[in-house]
Amino acid sequence: ALPIFSFENQSETIETLEKYITDKTKMIIVDTITTQYRRTLSEKSEKNILLNKDLNRQLAILKDLAIQFNLIVLITNQVRGVMKGGNNENSMEPVAAAILNYWSDYEIRLDFLPNRQMSKRIATITKHTEKSSHLPIEYRLTDEGIQEMK
What we know:
This protein is an alpha+beta fold and 150 residues long. It folds into two domains: 1-104, Rossmann fold (3-Layer(aba) Sandwich); 106-150, no CATH class. It contains four helices and eight strands; from the N terminus they run H-E-H-H-E-E-E-H-E-E-E-E. It has helices spanning 7-15, 35-40, 45-69, 97-103; strands at residues 27-30, 72-75, 79-84, 89-94, 107-112, 120-127, 137-142, 145-148. A hairpin with a 2-residue loop joins strand 7 (137-142) and strand 8. The two termini are 34 Å apart.
């Protein structure tokens, strides 16, 4: 695990990630790629444009590493509440959704099941590069890991 302390540190880490890849490396996991990005956003649009460019560059590097070394790259992301229309309804959408959507081959949305325990959730494929079912899958988080609910 490589700890990340700032968006700049994240960028530097991703730039040098290739030196950590060995023949045994099969997967790179980036947990919540937009945490430091979100913390760095400002009221100044010029600064945010540069942050967007850097996030794009980071994702391009990860995509290139996946292709070059035949790796799986798993990225988790934060969501934010967004007002929809004039009906005061809140919905959730991924942070930097357009940027992550562009670079991702697959997207899976994870939600809590309504009126259920916190350990029970639903996974829905929202983007897939191949023809596949977008049926949601209900699952439960346990001490043993993820278990599909039947």
